[in-house]
Design goal:
449 residues; 16 helices; globular
Length: 449
């Protein structure tokens, strides 16, 4: 493999560069999404529909703790990309060392607290009735591996910040395949049930961590840190925190939304409605994988060129990323709208779930084609180090619009009101983000060219 340098982010044509960065990211997300989907299919068919609901209950807690690593990774990666663009290698190295220290401290602490309060957290997130026992089994095992997942999330984002998207793709591909193999072994062959599903997932985290460790110790990485760079630097910690808080807030709101939706749907339709939402939730990343991939490919390019003062390239990157992501998202969206029943039947043979899920799926994903503007617009501000607008725009979709709508609309439409909240919040947040992104381009990027 030809050696790739971060300098390529500032020299290659934007269209070619976005494809080079986004395609591996999209493939990695697709493989990870397929892994989650197939994992859910295995669980639903080999254990039962209640097991699907149990996993969905656990996800908000484990995702939030893992999101600490992702937040530190994305926040620090913005600094690293801009530092590499400005040729400030020392700042890039110190940032990486501080990221490792912060990830260890936060993920381990929160995992300990999560295990201590297990009996309170599971019911709070909708794990009631028959869902509680399998959810607790899955939860306790998963939390042992969550700190490892935090380092995986951190490492993946730093690899991408270095301009090495193929290695970032491998870091997502390898554990996905490993998880499916371990699922088959632990659930179908050894008949370990929910514990088997949990250990398969935790084992896949370990495989990913070992690959990322190899990458940073090999000659492929430009970031060769020393022990002194693990010492926390106040200014860098603050910058990582302010930018990383955007990601953490987004994941926290997603976790809270899961909690609220699970409980609201349980009150309306019981375990069947919660299972339907679990299937829709699994499809969310799969449906949006081209947009997420384009967003991840966009961030290091925008950050590097902003750091080097190439504002015309930054503007071109924004427009090109939105165009590509919108086209890809629309194609996937059409497939989803045409075959929701077939998709649902992959997960379960339960007649009630099959009857309820397809129409809800169509509502939840009705506004997917326009989301590129919202996701890439918010990512731009994070990539260039503007934490406050990044935070506010990130929160518009879930916190500012979705959660209030989820409480208001059911007063008039019942359970349907919950599902209607998804596309309405997507449209409103896209309009707001589009306005502020356009203003930023005119007042900042164009003015500096």
């Amino acid at each position: 493999m030809a050696k790739v340098s971060s300098k390529d982010l500032g020299t290659q044509p934007i269209g070619k560069l976005l494809i080079k960065q986004a395609v591996p990211a999209s493939i990695g997300i697709l493989v990870m999404s397929l892994n989650i989907l197939v994992d859910t299919i295995f669980v639903g068919n080999w254990i039962g529909p209640t097991a699907i609901a149990a996993i969905n209950v656990v996800l908000p807690v484990s995702f939030f703790i893992a999101a600490l690593g992702m937040a530190i990774g994305i926040g620090g990666s913005s600094i690293i990309s801009r530092a590499l663009g400005a040729n400030n290698i020392e700042k890039a190295l110190t940032t990486f060392g501080n990221q490792l220290t912060l990830t260890f401290l936060f993920t381990v602490t929160f995992a300990i607290f999560g295990l201590y309060f297990v009996d309170s957290l599971i019911p709070a997130f909708g794990g009631k009735g028959n869902i509680f026992d399998p959810a607790k089994i899955y939860y306790e095992i998963i939390l042992y591996g969550v700190p490892i997942l935090g380092f995986v999330m951190l490492g993946n984002n730093v690899i991408r910040a270095e301009g090495k998207p193929k290695f970032a793709m491998y870091a997502m591909f390898i554990p996905s395949v490993g998880n499916l193999v371990l699922d088959y072994l632990f659930i179908n062959v050894l008949n370990y049930g929910m514990a088997g599903a949990a250990w398969a997932t935790t084992g896949s985290y370990v495989v990913a961590f070992l690959f990322i460790l190899w990458y940073f110790l090999s000659e492929n990485s430009e970031l060769k840190i020393t022990t002194s760079q693990f010492r926390l630097d106040k200014a860098i910690v603050f910058e990582i925190g302010s930018l990383g808080f955007v990601t953490l807030a987004r994941q926290a709101v997603v976790s809270v939304s899961f909690l609220l939706v699970n409980n609201a749907l349980y009150n309306f339709g019981g375990e069947t409605s919660v299972t339907a939402y679990a299937i829709v939730g699994r499809m969310m990343m799969f449906v949006l994988f081209p947009v997420f991939g384009m967003t991840q490919g966009f961030i290091p390019i925008a950050g590097f060129n902003y750091g080097s003062g190439a504002y015309e390239r930054v503007k071109e990157t924004i427009y090109t990323a939105i165009k590509y992501a919108t086209i890809l998202g629309t194609i996937v969206f059409l497939g989803l709208m045409l075959f929701p029943e077939t998709i649902t039947k992959l997960f379960t043979s339960d007649a009630d779930v099959i009857r309820e899920t397809p129409s809800n799926m169509r509502w939840a994903f009705a506004a997917v084609p326009i989301l590129a503007v919202q996701l890439i617009g918010a990512a731009y501000f994070q990539a260039v180090g503007k934490a406050l607008p990044a935070l506010l725009l990130t929160l518009t979709r879930q916190a500012i619009f979705f959660i209030p709508l989820m409480y208001i609309l059911p007063l008039y439409f019942g359970e349907l009101g919950i599902w209607m909240s998804f596309p309405i919040s997507d449209v409103l947040s896209t309009i707001v983000t589009g306005y502020f992104l356009n203003r930023e381009i005119k007042k900042t990027l164009v003015a500096k060219i």
